[in-house]
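Reader question, answered in our methods column.
A reader sent in the components of a multi-part assembly and asked whether the whole thing could be modeled at once rather than chain by chain. We filled in our standard form and ran it. Here is what they sent:
COMPLEX SIZE: two components
ENTRIES:
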Amino acid sequence: MDTDKKTIGVTLVSGGLDSLVALGIALKECDEVAALHATYGQRTADRERKAFEDICAHYDVSWAMVIDLGHIAKFGGSSLTDPDAEIPEGPIFQGIPNTYVPFRNTNILAAGVSWAEALGAEAVYIGVVEEDSSGYPDCRREFIQNFQRVVEEGTRPDTDIIIRVPIISLNKTEIIRLGAGLNAPFELTWSCYRNSGDIACGNCESCLLRLRAFRRAGIEDPLKYEELSEEAQKFIER
Amino acid sequence: MDTDKKTIGVTLVSGGLDSLVALGIALKECDEVAALHATYGQRTADRERKAFEDICAHYDVSWAMVIDLGHIAKFGGSSLTDPDAEIPEGPIFQGIPNTYVPFRNTNILAAGVSWAEALGAEAVYIGVVEEDSSGYPDCRREFIQNFQRVVEEGTRPDTDIIIRVPIISLNKTEIIRLGAGLNAPFELTWSCYRNSGDIACGNCESCLLRLRAFRRAGIEDPLKYEELSEEAQKFIER
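And here is the structure of the entire assembly that came back:
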C-alpha cells in the first residue's frame, strides 16, 4: 500500500512556448499538476485560451482552470490590453516595451499561490525568463525571490509553497531545445501579440524572438506565419 | 498657475470599518483617491459591495472600481467563500480561523498596485491590522514589508509606489476613535460575516470584535444587531 502523499504542482500556463516547457518540467517533477490560465483583456485572449485548453488536453492534467483578470485591462497602461494602442512592429530591446502590463505577473502568481494553498500543493511553476524577456521587470530573479518571501509570510505557517522558475536562466533557444527533449507539443502554442487566427503575424516582437530561437535551435517552428518583412527576415537570421 | 502634480492614492475598500478609516486617512493625505473593492465569492459579497458604493458616494472619490476575484472562491479553502461551511459562532482567538481566505490580500494588493501603476499613483492604502486581526498571516507587518519589495522589483523603474498601512499598529478601539475624529460614516459600513440584510448577526467573530471595540471606545455603533447570545454579551463587556 502506498501511503505517500502525492506531490502537487500548480503551473501557470499562458499558452506560449515558455510556460509550455515549464509545464513539461512540472509534469516530470510532480505527481499531479494543476494548470492555471489567466485571461486579462489582452487582444489575443481567445487564441491563447484555446492554446491553453489544447495543451491541457494533450497532457491530461489533473486540474485546469481559467481565471478572468479583466480588471487589469480596465486599469489600462499597456498596449497589450488597449484595443486602440499599436503593438510595435519589429524588435525593440531598449527599456520596457509598451506591451508591459502593469504588475501582471504578481496578479497571476498571487492567484496561483491561493490555488496552491487551497489544494495543498508544494510548488507554483512559472515560465518567466530573465534574459530573453525584453525588460519586463516582473520576470527577473530578484522579483521572484522577493515574491517567495511574500508567500512565506502571507500563507498559513504549515503551508510550504516554493515558486519554481525552471527556465529563468535559459534563453529561448535553450528553452526550445529543452522542450524538444521533453516532446513538448509546440504546435499547440501561441506566441503572437497581434493575430488570433491560425496564422501568426511573424513581425511583432514576440513572433520575431520565437522565430529566431527556433532557427538557432535548428528546429522547425510548426506554426504558420504571414510573410515576413525584410527587416524581420534579417532579424531572425542574425 | 499651479503646475504641481496631483498626488493620487489607491485605497482598498472592503466596506468594513478598518478600510473606511484607511480611506479617510488617504483622503487627507492625497489630492485624489481611487477606491478599489474586490468581490471574491464571499457569502456577504452583495452587502459589502453596497457598503463600498455608499462610502464612495459619501466621499465622492475620484475613481471607484469593483473587481471580481471570484476564482478565489472556486479554489476553496475558506469557510468565508464556501456556502456549505459554517462560520464559527463566538470569538476564536487560537491560530488561524477557518474564515482565512488563502493568500487573499496578496491578490487584492496586486490588483491595487496594477491600478496604481497605470494611474501614476504614489501609494496604495490598505487597512490591515496586526493586533486585532485574529491571526490572518497576510495582515502582518512582515508580510507588508516583503510585499513592498515585490512592488519595487516588479514595477517599472520610474514607478514609485508605497504600500501604506496607516492603522496596522492600532487596535479596533483606537481605529474607531481615529475614525470618529475623521467623521468617518460608520453607519455605511458592514462587518458581519453571516448576514447580508440590514441587521448584523451580532454573534460571529467579526461582529463581536466590532461591538466590543465600539463599547470600549465609548461610541455607539450605528448598525442594528440581532439579539446577542449570553456568551456574546459577556465577551463584548470584557
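What stands out: The mean pLDDT of chain B is 90. The two ends of chain B are 57 Å apart (CA to CA).
Send us your own complexes using the same form.
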